[in-house]
UniProtKB/TrEMBL annotation:
Alphabetized Gene3D superfamilies for the sequence: Rieske [2Fe-2S] iron-sulphur domain
Name of protein: 3-phenylpropionate/trans-cinnamate dioxygenase ferredoxin subunit
Molecular-function annotations in GO: 2 iron, 2 sulfur cluster binding; dioxygenase activity; metal ion binding
Occurrences of domain Rieske (ranges): 5-100
PROSITE patterns referenced in this protein's UniProt entry, alphabetically: RIESKE
A Pfam family: Rieske
Superkingdom per UniProt: Bacteria
PANTHER family, alphabetized: 3-PHENYLPROPIONATE_CINNAMIC ACID DIOXYGENASE FERREDOXIN SUBUNIT, FERREDOXIN-RELATED
Keywords per UniProt: 2Fe-2S, Dioxygenase, Iron, Iron-sulfur, Metal-binding, Oxidoreductase
InterPro entries: Rieske_2Fe-2S (IPR017941), Rieske_2Fe-2S_sf (IPR036922)
């Protein structure tokens, strides 16, 4: 059975908000971008640096350490030095709460 974790209340997660939650022992970054919630494994695939706190522009999160970029909607790497996609997680909004679970 897959683990479903509460990330927080929608009203407490405004545009640009980021947080990390643990899903099945893995750190996952949750991002509110343009009113949509996205969740990705909280590790750059280049050097395993956390993505949490990275700048989000044009639907991509940037690793603060070396500048790798990942699409929030697909996890695909879009800027070197990252070449491998980051794992995505499902987000659901239910009763004003944001939940994260494995795809």
């Amino acid at each position: 059975m897959s683990e479903r974790v509460r990330a927080g209340e929608v009203t407490q997660m405004p545009e640009g908000f980021q947080c990390a939650v643990e899903v099945g022992g893995v750190s996952v970054v949750v991002v509110n971008y343009e009113g949509q919630f996205y969740a990705l494994r909280n590790n750059c695939t280049h050097k395993d640096y956390p993505l949490l706190g990275g700048e989000v522009v044009d639907g991509r999160i940037t690793c603060a350490k070396h500048g790798g970029k990942f699409e929030l909607s697909t996890g695909k790497a879009r800027a070197l030095p990252a070449v491998k996609a980051v794992k995505l997680y499902r987000t659901e909004v239910e009763d004003g709460q944001v939940f994260v679970s494995p795809l």
